[in-house]
Amino acid sequence: GLIRNYCRNPDPVAAPYCYTTDPNVRWEYCNLTRCSDAEGTAVAPPTATPLPSLEAPSEQAPTEQRSGVQECYHGNGQSYRGTYFISVTGRTCQAWSSMTPHSHSRTPKYYPNA
């Protein structure tokens, strides 16, 4: 679910995202790649229309998590349950239960299965 500040996709949009801790940047997609069905190679997520009333996302680029293990998601990432919490531009994700610096309605209470 929407725990801590981990990347998730409760809406769904093109890929896992998060609200950022930067007061000037409301949300961004997370720095994750989509898992390929062929031999574990990763591909960039599809381009999609951003959420209503949210800023446009940045380009995605594959990266590895601090442990050196690359995380990826399937499809649009609605089932992603990893612990990655960094946006495509390197910003730390805001906790889903927090309303600071960005107030939002995507909380664990309203999206228990996200």
Outline the structure in words:
The chain is mostly loops and about 110 residues long. The protein has one domain (about 1-100). Helix content is about 0%, strand content about 10%. The chain is built from no helices and five strands. It has strands at about 15-20, 25-30, 35, 40-45, 70-75. The strands form two sheets. Strands 4-3-5 form a three-stranded mixed sheet, with no helix packed on it. Strands 1-2 form a two-stranded antiparallel ribbon. The radius of gyration is 13 Å and the shape is globular. The chain starts with 16 loop residues before the first strand and ends in a 41-residue tail after the last strand. Keywords: Disulfide bond, Kringle. InterPro entries: Kringle, Kringle-like, Kringle_CS, Kringle_sf, Serine_protease_kringle. One of its GO terms (molecular function) is signaling receptor binding.
Quick take:
This protein is largely without helices or strands.
